[in-house]
Amino acid sequence: MKAAIGETSVADGGVALPDSIADQLRALIIRGVISPGEHLGQSELADRFGRSKVPIREALKQLAAEGLLRHDQNRGYFVAGLSLAEARQLYRLRRWLEADLLSHARWPDADEIADFRARFERLDALDAEGRRVEWIAQLRALRHDIFALSPDHLLLREALRLWALTDRYRSVLPRDRSGSAERQLIDAFAARDREALLTVYHADRDRIEGLLMSVLMERE
Q1: Angle between helices 53-66 and 153-170 (to 10 degrees)
Q2: What domains are defined for the chain?
Q3: From first to last of its 220 residues, what are the pLDDT tens digits of the chain?
Q4: How far apart (Å, rounded) are the C-alpha atoms in residues 159 and 162?
Q5: Burial 146-175 (b: 16+ CB within 10 A, else e)
Q6: Contacts of 215 (CB under 8 A, 6+ apart)
Q7: Which H or E element spans position 10?
Q8: d(C-alpha 16, C-alpha 20), whole Å
Q9: How far apart are CA 31 and CA 136, in angstroms?
């Protein structure tokens, strides 16, 4: 059977079609547009994306492998629920990895510091214009580049996986667009102060994790 037009190996923009669909579904899950426990039917998604079930199925398998979906052999795919026990473990893993990455990160040079600060100016502009989706994407990219100052790229890849799993937990918290913790991290990098760097990081983790645990405990 011939594939439908546009369902060959690559979608518009050079991204494989299942990956493109997975990216869109992942964004909806992370933003809380698709709720925990919600059923994702292949037929409904095929209609929604105007595609056959083949790339839809591959995208769902990909998200299930990431832990964002759970698969029931008889009933299909569901958005994974939010769990207090899971959140505690995921955030413990994140803290171990991220603190280690910062402990071994190199000091950025003056040009890199200037670039980080300029990117925050762009974030402020996106915030003022209410372009939240772009704001989230660019803040995530900036965070990646901060932690990528560490030479431990295998640990960074694992941290990225954990970010994907914990981003959906952030969707239950009040919006926080300040990026103040990242600004303070950059200030500590500029001062080449490792102690301040880790102090800022742990203080922000304490704040976020405390808020999240309170919200999840109220839900249980």
Answers
A1: 100
A2: 12-79 (1.10.10.10), 84-219 (1.20.120.530)
A3: 333 333 444 455 545 888 889 988 988 887 778 888 899 999 999 999 898 899 999 999 999 988 889 898 889 999 988 889 989 999 999 999 999 999 999 999 999 999 999 998 898 888 888 887 788 788 889 989 999 999 999 999 999 888 878 887 877 777 665 557 888 999 999 999 999 999 999 999 999 999 999 988 887 6
A4: 5
A5: bbebbebeebbeebeebbebbbbbbeeeee
A6: 172, 173
A7: none
A8: 6
A9: 10
State the Cα–Cα distance between residues 77 and 64, nearest whole angstrom: 8
Token pair in block for residue 10: 């690559």
Under DSSP, the state recorded for 151 is S
Q: Is 76 helix (H, G, I), strand (E, B) or coil?
A: strand
- Whose structure tokens read 């037009």? 5
Residue that is written with structure tokens 């990431």 in the block: 66
Q: Which residue has the tokens 């000091």?
A: 107
